[in-house]
Design goal:
The chain is mainly alpha-helical and 456 residues long. The protein has one domain. It contains 20 helices and 4 strands. The chain has helices at residues 8-22, 31-45, 48-56, 63-85, 97-108, 113-132, 135-141, 145-166, 186-203, 209-220, 255-260, 262-291, 303-320, 331-336, 342-355, 359-362, 367-381, 393-409, 412-429, 436-455, and strands at residues 91-93, 170-173, 177-180, 325-327. The strands form 2 sheets. A two-stranded antiparallel sheet has the order 1-4. Strands 2-3 form a two-stranded antiparallel sheet. A hairpin with a 3-residue loop joins strand 2 (170-173) and strand 3. The model has no long low-confidence stretch (mean pLDDT 86).
């Protein structure tokens, strides 16, 4: 008996079901556009597959197990976000918290990594409870509109800053702290060329502009040398690799150690809770605002599902053996490439699954290939400045202050805190009551700044 061959009608039926499930037509997108967006997002954030194991291995964790944990948690969390919330947001173990986990919690405080994973899981459960009870949505809704606008634009500046730094165009300088590169090496030249090339593609509205830039720069890197005289793009000896599973990190959670040292761990626990709550929320808001999917009242679509998916990602990550999983700002690259639904997230999850077997090849993508994309994505996010209300200082000064702080010190949390403080004080100066929720946010950010200084 022969297996049935898919007919044109069958394919049309599958496309119709996908359209209904992901609301492709309603959001003005197509399967092809979502596929390109997913590939773009994955290419922009695929570095985490290599970088996260390197960082967390310093805590004494098995590097091969971390490779598996990073991919499994990113794949599962992104798939949950895609299928439950239907949003083009990819998730993976977050940069920043993994450094604090390895260098501060384990390295400086001497806490076993198993105890640290228990802390991550408990924080994730708190996130999940807040999400399912609508408290997280209420807290987000309490953010003033000027601060919400500042969040989107500050994330854009931060992404562009990351691109300039990773591409070698932003360097340290003894006189001015930072300076533009003198273009002494091939990586800086390729990054600069990639930025200009991407700008040309965007003007011409070429589909997959970001992906084309990364492929083109990676190819040129085969013939351009770095400062040590080696090719920027170095092909691996083996393109494929089958990962080995040891299970050392799976459910390696030491709750007894956490509760027996609760007072010692309380400051860093609150630090993780605050930074992931607000940083992840700000990232999701910035990505969705950039996609033009915000509700008329400024709220996130499918807010409860989105926040719960973010929390579940960290639950999965801690169980698999990695630090906090969060929404990635690189998702904006996919949004700028046309992604508007969870279908692009399904593509990202599938590519993470393939990465299990293509780890050696992923390491061949040089930083100068992703840097131009990050720079242009960040600049595209600044289009929110068109909505800047200049009729009153309290409407335009807080977001501009947030932009300035982010550009100077690349600290999104500090920028968000100062934006909230400025907005509150300016309202009080006008003898207007900012509201109990806004004052509560200010109190939380004061606590964050205190904890930030306490744990270094």
């Amino acid at each position: 008996m022969h297996s049935p061959i898919p007919t044109r009608a069958g394919r049309m039926g599958l496309a119709a079901r996908a359209d209904r499930f992901f609301q492709l037509g309603a959001r003005g997108t197509t399967p092809a556009r979502e596929a390109i967006a997913g590939c773009t997002t994955f290419a922009a954030m695929s570095y985490i597959v290599v970088v996260n194991p390197l960082i967390l291995a310093a805590a004494g964790m098995d590097r091969n197990g971390l490779f598996l944990a990073t991919i499994v948690s990113a794949m599962a969390a992104t798939l949950v976000m895609a299928l439950w919330a239907n949003l083009p947001i990819a998730l993976a173990p977050g940069m920043g918290t993994n450094i604090v986990f390895a260098q501060v919690l384990v390295g400086q405080m001497g806490v076993p990594w198993q105890t640290g994973l228990a802390m991550v899981l408990l924080n994730a459960l708190v996130f999940l409870l807040l999400s399912l009870t609508k408290w997280r949505a209420r807290i987000v809704a309490a953010f003033p509109e000027p601060v919400k606008l500042g969040m989107q634009c500050s994330i854009g500046v931060f992404i562009a800053w990351l691109g300039l730094r990773s591409g070698g165009l932003l360097v340290g300088d003894a006189g001015s702290l930072v300076a533009f590169s003198r273009l002494h090496d091939g990586a800086a030249w390729l990054t600069l060329a990639g930025i200009l090339f991407t700008a040309m593609l965007l003007v011409r509205r070429v589909p997959g502009a970001f992906l084309l830039t990364m492929l083109a720069v990676s190819a040129l890197g085969l013939f351009v040398a770095d400062a040590d005289g080696r090719a920027l793009t170095r092909l691996p000896d083996h393109w494929f690799g089958v990962p080995t599973f040891t299970g050392d990190l799976l459910f390696a959670l030491d709750f007894r150690g956490f509760f027996s040292h609760f007072m010692l761990l309380l400051p860093v626990t609150l630090y993780f809770l605050l930074i992931e709550f607000f940083s992840g929320t700000a990232t999701m808001f910035g990505v969705i605002r950039s996609a033009g999917l915000l509700k008329p009242n400024g709220d996130l679509p499918s807010a409860r599902a989105a926040f719960a998916s973010d929390a579940l990602g960290s639950v999965i990550g801690a169980a698999a053996g990695t630090s906090t999983v969060t929404a990635f700002v690189e998702s904006v690259a996919g949004v700028e490439a046309g992604g508007r639904t969870g279908l692009s997230g399904v593509v990202v999850a599938a590519l993470f699954g393939l990465a299990l077997f293509f780890g050696p090849l992923l390491t061949a993508i040089p930083a100068c290939a992703t840097a131009p994309v990050l720079v242009m994505v960040g600049l595209c996010m600044l289009d929110g400045l068109r909505d800047l209300d200049t009729s009153a200082p309290e409407n335009y000064l807080p977001p501009l202050l947030m932009l300035l702080v982010t550009a100077c010190c690349a600290d999104l949390m500090v920028a968000l805190a100062l934006g909230c403080f400025a907005y509150t004080l300016m309202l009080l100066a006008r003898r207007r009551w900012p509201g109990a929720m806004v004052l509560g946010l200010d109190a939380v950010f004061v606590l964050y700044l205190v904890l930030r200084g306490a744990i270094g």
